Amino acid sequence: MKKLVLIAIVTILVWNCKEKEKKSESRNEMEVTEIREDVPRLEKGCYGYDKNSNVVLFEIEKTTGPVSGNLTYQLDGKDKNTGKFEGTFKDSRLIGTCTFMSEGKESSREVAFKVKEGQLIEGYGELNEDGTSFKTMIPLTSRPRCP
User: Fold this and answer.
1) What range defines the domain where residue 6 resides?
2) Are residues 93 and 111 part of one domain?
């Protein structure tokens, strides 16, 4: 009789342990489940804006490592600027420096874009004293220059 009770207790303990292992495995599987959101990607190619006599063309040639390409501004009432862009792409933001020729002189300035729905939206902000870089990087979605 004692043997029968002992066997019953051991069987119940083994059964309970197996149930706990199954529950534990189920929890681990749930913890591993990943939630993926669509992360904006930067694609090679031409991006452009043409409205009210203002034209901006950005041809992205390289998207890995430092991002590079050609950037042209032809704004109404201003000289046309064509230059080389080099920068970095992180968290849907493309930030870098454009080196261009204007009035026979080489200049550079910081530019920033946000990738949204396959488009580049240019950011803006207050520039430093010589107008070559942003004083403070502001959220690029606040007031874009071009749609």
Assistant:
1) 1-35
2) yes
